[in-house]
């Protein structure tokens, strides 16, 4: 996936929240609440991070679950580093 070079504060919030959950799977609703973003934003950014190889996705009914991939650095080290740097900048 060719991601854009821009990293928004909302994307960083989603990334941080899921990263903080460790190996636990979380729903988009939980991400929205924990990252203080709208549900649609949580789903969109979680999917973007799945496509970038940063998150793993479990396709379950009624909603998907997400977690930080233990292979994120292998799959897309550059984007992961960009997210980490943005998280540091946004504070």
Major sheet attributes: 3 strands, antiparallel
User: In order across it, which strands form the biggest sheet?
Assistant: 1-3-2
What is the name of the CATH topology?
Arc Repressor Mutant, subunit A
Helix content bin: 55-70%
Describe what you observe in this structure.
The chain has a single domain (9-80), classed as Winged helix-like DNA-binding domain superfamily/Winged helix DNA-binding domain (Arc Repressor Mutant, subunit A, Orthogonal Bundle). The chain contains 4 helices and 3 strands, in the order αβααββα. It has helices at residues 9-20, 28-35, 39-51, 72-90; strands spanning 26-27, 55-58, 65-68. It has a 3-stranded antiparallel β-sheet with strand order 1-3-2. α1 (9-20) crosses α3, α1 packs across α4 and α2 crosses α3 (39-51). The radius of gyration is 12 Å and the shape is globular.
Sum this structure up briefly:
With 91 residues, the chain is mainly alpha-helical.
Based on the model shown, name its key terms.
91 residues; 4 helices
What is the fold's blueprint, element by element?
Layout: H1 9-20, E1 26-27, H2 28-35, H3 39-51, E2 55-58, E3 65-68, H4 72-90
């Amino acid at each position: 996936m060719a991601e854009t070079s821009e990293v928004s504060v909302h994307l960083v919030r989603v990334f941080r929240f899921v990263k903080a959950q460790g190996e636990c799977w979380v729903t988009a609703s939980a991400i929205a609440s924990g990252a203080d973003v709208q549900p649609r934003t949580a789903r969109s950014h979680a999917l973007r991070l799945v496509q970038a190889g940063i998150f793993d996705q479990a396709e379950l009914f009624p909603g998907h679950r997400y977690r930080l991939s233990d292979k994120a650095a292998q799959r897309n080290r550059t984007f992961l580093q960009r997210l980490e740097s943005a998280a540091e900048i946004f504070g």
